[in-house]
């Protein structure tokens, strides 16, 4: 299942790029006190979908690893951090009907926390130096 690991590694970059773009847009919304627009909803939705796909690929990879080799502690720590990141990404659904200023602020905080979890989780595997 080396192909699965390669796809998982490549999708990681999509998640990070989408996360950074979304955070920048949310930060601009907070600073400019703007309305939560269709573009904001789309960016947050696509970031969430990318995270969902990435975690699903990760789970499939984890199951494959368990079947083919011994399960390592690094794998579990990485999986735990990614689940925390996934929760942080989906947390803004709670503020869907909140005023725009609250929605921007809380979503921004959640996404920054999610990216921190992502960076830590990938660092646990020493994978930042690898392209895929």
Tell me what you see in this structure.
The structure is a single chain. This protein has 132 residues and is an all-alpha fold. It has one domain. Helix 2 runs antiparallel to helix 3 and helix 3 runs antiparallel to helix 4. It is elongated and about 50 Å long.
Distinctive features:
132 residues, mainly alpha, elongated
Helical percentage: over 70%
Q: How far is the first residue's CA from the last residue's CA?
A: 14 Å
Low-confidence parts:
none
Helix segment tally: 4
Average pLDDT score = 92
Q: Please state the structural category.
A: mainly alpha
Task: Note the topology.
Layout: H1 2-32, H2 38-68, H3 73-90, H4 100-124
Helix pairs in contact: 1-2, 1-4, 2-3, 3-4
Briefly, what is this?
This protein has 132 residues and is mainly alpha-helical.
